[in-house]
Structures are given as C-alpha cells and as structure tokens.
Amino acid sequence: MTRLLRYTLLGLLIAIGLIASLIYSLTWRPEAKEALPVSCSAQAPTLVPGQALKVMTWNVQYLAGKRYVFWNDLAAGDDESPTPEDMAFSLDEVARVIRDEQPDIVLLQELDDGAKASDYQNQLKLLQDRVTDLYPCTAQAFDWKADFVPEPHIFGSVGRQLATLSRYQIEHAERLQLPVAPANFISRQFKPKNALLVTYLPLHNGGQMAVLNTHLDRAPQPDETLQTQVTAVAKVLDKYESRGTPWLIGGDFNLLPLGQYRRLPAEQRTPYSADSALHVLWDKYPMIPNNNEASGIDRAQWLTHYPNDPGLNGPDRTVDYLFYSPHIKRVEARVRQDDTLRISDHLPVIARFLLPAAP
Q1: Residue 4 domain boundaries
Q2: 42 and 72 together in one domain
Q3: pTM, to two decimals
Q4: Which of 63, 159, 204, 349 has the CB geometry, 3.0–4.6 Å to 114, for a possible disulfide?
C-alpha cells in the first residue's frame, strides 16, 4: 500500500469519525423505558374508585393553525412554519376549549419545545400558564428531538412532545419507546421516535390507574411500522388488564376505523391500508369512536382529522381515539367539531367514564 493511499484511507476514517461524532452530538437516543419527572401539587385530589372521569385527547399540531399547507402535508405544500401571530391565536383557542370543557385529564400531542419551526417556543409552558388553576399535575415526553435536522425544509432543531395534564394526583410517569420506522443508520437518528407517555394516578383504595398518551407513526406509504407499533401498544395494555389495573389510552393513532378506507377518494388513501392495523386493539378493547359510530349513518359527527389540503373543506376521516379497559364504563362521548375546525388539523375527542368501584 502506497503512502498516499494510506494517508487517504486515514483521512477518510477521520472524516467518518467526525461525522459520526457530530451526528451523535446533535441527535437523541432515548432508552426503551425511562422514568420521567412529574410536576404535581400536593393539594391535587386523589382518584376515588367508582367516580366519574372526563378525558380529552387532542393533537394540537404545534399550534400551527389551518392557514397553511406544509411541506410534509402535500407534495405541493411549501409552507415551513407558522407565524407567531397564528401560534398565539391557536394557543388562546386551545386554552379556551380546554377551559370550556374542563376535562379531568387532557392528553395532548404535538406540543413543540425548542423547535425552529415554532420559533423555539416551550408550548406546554405557554399553555400551562393559561390553565394552571385547572391542572396542578403534568407529565411530558419527547417523541421527536434533535438539535439539528439537515432536511432542507427544517434545517434546524426539532422538539415535539406528548403532554398529559391532570386535575388529579400523578404518582409517577414513564416513557416507553415504540418500534421506529425502518431507515438507514444516519437518517434514523433524525426521525421521530414514537412513544407512550404513561402516567400512574393513585386511587384512594391503594391501587392505581394507568393513563397512556401516544402519537403513532405518520407514514407517507403503508409499511409494517404502524402494525408493529400497535402490537407493542396492545402488549402494554394486556399487561395492565392482566394485573387488574384500570387503564385508558388516547392519542393520534394515524389509522382508520373499519369502513372508512373505501369512503376516501383514491388520492387520500395513500398513507393507509384497507386492513387497518387498529383491529389489533378494537378486537379486544372498547374504542371511542367505535366502528359503528365512525362508519355508521352519523359518521360525520365522529370525524377527527381535517388535513391541510386545499381540496378539502372539512374533516374527512377518523384517526384519533380513546381506548379503555372493559372494567371502565363509558358514559358519553363526542368529537368537538363546531368551534375547533380552525385551531388544528385534528379535533378533540372527549369522553366521560365511570371508574370501576372498589372490590
């Protein structure tokens, strides 16, 4: 081997090492299971077996609002970030809806923290400032985080969170990593890392309730990722059910209910498959909205997603749900549509339950 070749190879190895070191320093590698800090006032009440519980789940779309077609919404979309004025409007509107509904537990997806696209806002803190009197307890978990993403439309930091607000005591919380989409080693470091945010609420009788919050993968084309993620979620729920722990989960599952795939125009079906992976959950556990509601005669009342697509003039599909243990009783449920269409590309799902009575 000539001296020139040796020096060339050495230079390449050094360059590869420097690139790997840079990627390592800029990206985030969460553990499979992580304990999370909880912010909770000692004065917050404790759940009582048999009580009523009102829950809301809502993907608030990093407060971007509906005046944009973002680069990752449609191939023709070229918007990259909302204005501070639009985010301020959406923040006030999200706070207004929450204060009007006053659910006991709020499950939020897509709140930004430190992201270039949302002007580096800590959106959870901004929201907490408006509803702190209602929700003394909070837990949060990132599902996308990097100091720099080289994608031309981002070209800066990302930071996106799940957040759970509770009127009741949260004993502890944890983040459970879900399977991620297949990708090469380098690009995988910059992609979202979907997860479960699990909060444990103590009960007066010494037990506890598990409340889970999630946002599953948004795939541009159908692949196995959502199937593996739903299967992983089901295993977690099965564990709580086998232990007799009451639980509920809410979030943006990015999957259709039974019957909606064929109702979508062909060009809107691309991210989905005819056989929804969500059947892994609805085959075992009650779902809100259930398949009869989401695909029945009154299905328009249960649509939860209004994509940023100028060809649409309203919500056209259901992708946000609440699932719950069969030991919990559903009292009532609805999707709040009448005054939320301009706040986010998702609509809030709201339900009231009765917790199981003490044995």
Answers
A1: 1-30
A2: yes
A3: 0.93
A4: 159
